[in-house]
Predict the structure.
Amino acid sequence: MIFAHGFGCDQNMWRFVAPAFEADHRVILFDHVGAGASELEAYDPQRYGDLGGYADDVVEICEALDLADAVFVGHSVSSMVGVLASARAPSRIGSLVLVGPSPRYIDDEGYRGGFSHEDIEELLASLNSNFLGWSSAMAPAIMGNPDRPELGEELTASFCRTDPEIAARFARVTFMSDNRADLAGVNVPTLVLQCSDDVIAPPEVGSYVHREIRGSRLVQLAATGHCPNLSAPQETIDAIRAFV
């Protein structure tokens, strides 16, 4: 099982979930280039100018470890990274678990992503002008669960550990992405985990992903916010275990 983290995070975000699968799976954790303990000098703006560069990294991990039919568990933007990686290396990735996925964050005709184009431009401008301030304001909103402020504080700290320049570029790649056309090409068993009260990926998005990926399974979690791997790890574990 390969666990991939979302924007502003690192592999530590899976510490409550991944160990539950170590008894019967080979568990692989990693940091996207520019996050966590990754080598910042490996970041190439051209390679990572779209999500394809991150998907290529996943394929390289699979090849280096000689994985076959792996379960790819992707949180947030890494859900689409997994979709792209599975198309690039179908023998390496045998199933997908998409946690809070969104193929497009910006609303479009007949599609609700949750944000207008102006919303995203304002978000990116704010991030560019004051990354620490943006992190302090946005992380608690993304996390949800205001009655558990320690969760928002952890996500804020994670954002603040990220290199600001790389984070700004990754944010633009993330929030300007449109991977809707890639969903129809998914031909591996797929689980879609949709959170309640998710400001990043509203319920309509999870339903859309479920409809567009043939044969996928949609599970509506009781967990609120965008990070059930932190806020509701046992529910997340149970949903994944029932799938794998």
